[in-house]
Amino acid sequence: MKRSASAADKKQASMRPLRVGEEIRHALAEVMHDVGFFDRALAGTSFTVSQVQVSPDLKHANVYVTPLGKSDAEAAQMVALLNKHASRFRQEVNRRVSLKFSAALKFHHDTSFDVAARMEGLLRSPDEE
Length: 129
What we know:
129 residues; alpha+beta; 3-stranded mixed beta sheet; 4 helices; 50% helix
């Protein structure tokens, strides 16, 4: 007979990707500090890892990053370089986070900070007061 999952089991299952995502985010923040050893084009660029969304099976992770001080075109190039070296980042994360499977990383440019700044500017404009 098949046992149905309790509400506590379902909540536990839904929390695990969040916890793993935070662990990966912290590990990537450490790795990004020394990103220059992967590619000289990335050397000297500071990144903010804002969020890591992990799939329920923990095998795929979408990593949202913001290269600091870069235009949108330069940021797109930086994210493309990060994706080029995703397997190296995966190895480094795997050394720092102990999991049964290491998640395949896919980097995305996070524009949420730009959107928030634009909204803040609109709300503070004299026309809105």
